[in-house]
Amino acid sequence: MKTAVVTDSTAYIPKELREKLNIYMIPLSVIFGNETYQEEIDISASDFYEEVKQKELPTTSQPPVGQFVELFEKLSKEYDAVISVHLSSGISGTFQGAVTAGGMAEGIEVFPFDSEISCMVQGFYVLEAAEMAAEGHSPQEIMARLEEMKHSIRAYFMVDDLSHLQRGGRLSSAQALIGSLLQVKPLLHFEEKVIVPFEKIRTRKKAMKRIVELLEEDAKSGAPYRAAIIHANREAEANEWKAELEAQFPNVEFMISYFGPVIGTHLGEGSMGLGWVKKK
Q: Where does the record place a coiled coil (predicted)?
């Protein structure tokens, strides 16, 4: 049985890697006024952060169901099944779109998977699925492994400016004001499919130190881990952090990723995150 792997743009898997591993991607969009841009296709992360400085904060939208149906039916000519991995159903209807389209597409069996998270941590599931599909594993075996991964997946994000969360309806005005006055850098994580505060920390430096402590709790077992440093237009800082972490955690394989336009709309420039998962 030949299995295709599909994800959405919020996994932020580089194009070269998607092509190398035969990963198919459905884009979400950002909308500035009357202009709609499909992320990873019409607008890059760096272009997005420049646009935001000059314009109103955009809105975001999920892919239309028809786009999923079209892709699934196109894949049916070459594949028997599709594993479709998407950002958390608690923050977007994209996963539900894949479920609906899976019931409509003809000639192919669709296995939608709710990552319950986003960004390159969502990408960890996608990479695992693509590697297993290439090795000839069945869709059922791949889905079982993805469920198993949920037990060791962790991700923590620090936002630099609370106003984006507040404007996007993710944080009340009062909380944003108090947070700004106290210089609070809340650590966020996904819980029950939605973004919630994990801890309130006073400074950026302390917030990043706390994330490292959380990684240490898992990595001290010595087991091999895969990790991603995720930044919102802070590449130099991300590279510096990666060098420090690689020296501290020899059993962890680090990569650098980014918060692209859709997720960046809600978190804002300067945000930083770290996610990890135990390797097979």
A: none
Residues of the chain with pLDDT under 70: 161-183
Phi/psi for 7 (5° steps) reads -140, 180
- Name the E strands within 9-58: 23-26, 29-32, 35-38
Sign of CA dihedral 116, 124, 10, 144: negative
Q: Identify which of 149, 180, 154 has the alpha carbon closest to the alpha carbon of residue 167.
A: 180
pTM of the predicted structure, to 2 decimals: 0.93
Which among 119, 89, 96 has a CA at the least distance from the CA of 188?
Answer: 119
Tokens (6 digits) for 179: 């947070």
Tell how strand 35-38 and strand 29-32 pair up: antiparallel
Determine the CATH number of domain 3-28+63-149: 3.40.50.10170
CA dihedral 46, 61, 108, 5 (to 10 degrees): 30
Q: How far apart are CA 262 and CA 260, in angstroms?
A: 6
- Can you read off the two tokens belonging to residue 56? 């109103």
How far apart CA 101 and CA 67 sit, in angstroms, is 9
Instruction: Write the CB contacts of 138 (distance below 8 Å, at least 6 apart in sequence).
Output: 1, 3
Residue ranges per domain, the chain?
A: 3-28+63-149, 154-278
Q: How far apart are CA 152 and CA 194, in angstroms?
A: 18
Amino acid occupying residue 260: G
Matching CATH number, 154-278, of 3.40.50.300, 3.40.50.720, 3.30.1180.10, 3.40.309.10: 3.30.1180.10
Q: How is the beta sheet containing 29-32 ordered, strand by strand? A: 35-38, 29-32, 59-61
- Name the helix (H) or strand (E) containing 84: strand 81-86
- For residue 154, the cross-strand partners are 276
What is the crossing angle of helices 139-149 and 119-134, to 10°?
150
